[in-house]
Task: structure prediction
Amino acid sequence: MKPSQLAKPFVLSHPTYEPGRPIDDVARDLGLDPAGIIKLASNENPFGPSPKAAEAARRAIGEGQLYPDGGCYLLRQGLARAHGLSPGQFVIGNGSNEVIELLGHVFLGPGDEVVMGKPEFVVYRLVPPLFGAVPVEVPLADFRNDLGALARALSPRTKMVVVSSPNNPTGSANTETELLGFIRSLPGGVICVVDEAYIDFEERPHDIRPLIREGRNVIGLRTFSKIYGLASLRIGYGYASAEMASLLDRVRQPFNVNAIAQAAALAALGDTAFTGMCASENRRGLARLEAGFSGLGLKYVPSQANFILVRVGDGARVFDALQRRGVIVRPLKTYELPEWIRVTVGTAVQNERLLAELETVLR
Ligand SMILES: Cc1ncc(COP(=O)(O)O)c(C=O)c1O
Result:
């Protein structure tokens, strides 16, 4: 028998996650000099990691022969201080992506439904089928999560509801009043996952900690991949009640988060001057891109994140043409937004380059 005949049936039609294309990959493919390529495709930090995080990572590799602390003791202490919660309220993952999968391991089974926006970060659609559960997608309204419609989509089979705020790929956020009201209205048997990957870029971020204190079944997910500039090290976390965090902690691999990532994340957490600079540069960059898009007569979705959606007509063609000119952006066919591309906010120089190349390819 062939492996595909032995595989679980759902795997045969399960899509593979398509990441933003790496610079070297595009360079090899198109015969370009990697040094001349900019990647504005995966919402990474154009300023890199904090120098303090990079130094901590270099120090940690010196003890690379040792297994990491699987319990992430020091990082949990740091997170507890930063959030005013207790260390036992955190679960640390190999990227927040892993925490999404841990939620599936603990809570999802055959026939369970996971309600989410459409579009929503694609991993939320990919994880439920691993456990026989079913994603239920509810269209956004005006590019924002439609919390009323999400509430109406709940059924007796709903186990989980997901709200990313800001949403990926649209960059728009729900207000704290809306979000907290929605979560308080959920039935006790529904877990709410609030994905906060981009919350550090918001001017008026929401705060779900009162809901955790009230004993609601809610978990916030954060990542070190965005404002902390540590995407390559793969580290993120969830925070929730101590009971929920300890359930998630039971199903992780013994050493799921490496020591270099733990050390870098802890140092990054402490460098608030760096993250403050990144947030204000991001706001400046967003304003510049918005003005540039307006100047080109292009519609965009006002963003509270470190990326922005812009309508370019034929998104696949513009993606391809930009890539040939050394600018990698994200086409949105998989998100069923074929007329749009998603652009990560870059450095001032990168933003000017994107706008100039975009003008050329649209001409
Ligand atoms: C909304 C959202 N959640 C989670 C993630 C994953 O982050 P991590 O790199 O921590 O796995 C992303 C990455 O792009 C994202 O956009």
Residues 43, 95-97, 121, 164, 168, 195, 197, 223, 225, 231, 236 surround pyridoxal-5'-phosphate (CB under 6 Å).
